[in-house]
Write a structure and sequence with these properties.
This protein is of the alpha/beta class. 42% of the residues lie in helices and 12% in strands. It is built from twelve helices and seven strands. α1 packs across α5.
Amino acid sequence: MNERVCRCETIAADMRRDMVGLSDVLGKSVAHWGGALSCTELLAVLYGEVLNVKTDAFEERDKLLFSKGHASMALYTAMAECKLLDRDELSSTYSVDGSRLPAVTEANQQMGIECSGGILGLGLSMGAGMALLAKERRYSYHTYVIVGDGEMDEGSVWESIMFASQRKLDNLTLIVDLNGLQADGSTKQIMDWNSLGERLHAFGWSVAEIDGHNCSEILSALGKRIDGCPRAIVAHTVKGKGISFMENDYEWHHKALVKEELETAKAEVGLI
């Protein structure tokens, strides 16, 4: 197997262990398990192999706007696995009042967190603006935006999709974590996005539809771009991926683990 793919798979497995390990600081508090586990491989590939974040130069450092900021566990564990965040800080301060690592992400340029979460629909708007800035000033960074499929319901997302196409922002990549579930149920019942790839293509985007848990497919999709077209990756994922009782259950969008569930989760990710 490709060495880069193996590295990403290892990072993803370690991220899941790290997330379940955060239960020690969370205690009985609720957390956004489902959406964090569904985007694990996406972040593992981005931080493990794709993003240029080893520089402090604004004009060179790639921008990742994690618009589904409620899934912060996935972002923080990816950063910790790639040595961009201290493990001790993560394990002791995650979701603690006043820490740099709140349950919903807050913009922190020093940490490389480009936007705050919580208000869905803002990430792609900001990302399109950053991509336009890079075009106009000839900066070398690429802008990536990760959104959830529930977030695609927001009108501001589609305004940004039209804007990016009009401005030919081929330095912008949108990644949709399409797990089919949102806080209140299935997206099919609330706002059906089964034809999302076709819609994005109709809006002038270059589109790839992939298995969002297949690191090889993710790497390949991120590596292909077309001049003059913004890039969209529709990643088909499983909400709660990797923990059997959470998979495909929208109630794990935001829920607390009880003792028995925690023991099962620890066993399934290899903590015990």
